[in-house]
Amino acid sequence: MKEIRKIVAAYDSIDRTKDKVALAAVVNVEESSYRRIGARMLVSTSGQWVGGISGGCLEGDALRKSQKAIYNNSPTTVIYDTMEDDSNQIGVGLGCNGRIEVLVTPIDFDDPINPVELLRDLINIKEPQILLQVIGHSKEKNLLGTCTVIDMNAPAVQEFCGIEKDVIKNGIRKSKHQQRATIISHINKASAQVELLAEYIVPETKLIVIGDNYDVNTLLALANELGWEIHLVANSAKLNKKVLSLAQKVYGYDEVDQLPIDNFTAIVMMSHDFKRDKLCLKDLIKKKPKYLGMLGPKKRLIKMENELNLYDLNSQSFFYSPIGLDIGAESPEEIALSIAAEIVAAFKNRNGLSLKYKKGPIHIRH
After folding, report:
1. At a CB cut-off of 8 Å and minimum separation 6, what does 93 contact?
2. 232 exposed, middle or buried (CB, 10 Å; 0-12, 13-18, 19+)?
3. Where are the domains of the chain?
4. Model confidence, pTM
5. What is the pLDDT of residues 60-80, one digit of tens each?
6. CATH number for the 206-347 domain, one of 3.60.21.10, 3.30.1490.20, 3.30.479.20, 3.40.50.720?
7. SS3 262
8. Which residues does residue 359 pair with via DSSP β-bridges, in sequence order?
């Protein structure tokens, strides 16, 4: 979501009397690549770009291709294939061995539902949404990049690009079940072969930190860098204004029952106060957030379990204590890194092990 925010902000800052823009987006990936489906960059005719589609090796060429698409006022698909040893292919020699499809869509500033405006609508969502986009069309190339946002909780799904509602509904159902992008390929009513990308967009991660000691500072700073929505439970008098400014809202310790907890919330308890943690935990464990972690050693946890009559809290899939991944963290900065990494792993249903031990591709294939 952070990248989408940056793209929208850059779009809003464009001098529309002098500059035009295009949105380049990764819409399909085979084998290895640095970025996955949904990676985007906004490119201007002046040569500026925001976001990215790779680790830096493809952006220069994508800039040129995007400027050409703007000049021709026509969407285009660019394919980077490093699976074959072709010396003429951009990216060969990098060892990625993957195939990446990038859709470049010139943006019409006057269109209220252009792709960037639809991204704007996704910034503050509270539930997952589907961004449905035309990425292939055998008859009407000008429709490439056409988008719509679908609320998965809506009772009905509308026909899109001549494709029946039931076909779209099945694709959305698959994307929702797998919680990742799905490609819908179908022949529409006009006998055209159409490919739609159903991209699964989740809300921004919400981090609630409970505590006001100095180690809170580094975790909030890292969460801010990650683009997470930050809420803080603390005695605000103990923290400086710079730290407090990172939080969307600061709550008192007596306001724990008012915390905005949803399915995309991670709560980190780091008050270093046993009695305070015990009172908070008694309420928070009932809410079953996506992630609830508590700082401290195992013996502290066992004592708290006994006093609260809660048996084996770690048997709860959402509860983590001691908190963080085992990376040997000692400093506040290392501990913050350990905690943030564990939250990312929990939200993406990963185990946090070293990738050297993973069999097969790093990323789950789409």
Report:
1. none
2. buried
3. 2-106, 125-201, 206-347
4. 0.83
5. 788 888 888 888 888 988 888
6. 3.40.50.720
7. coil
8. none
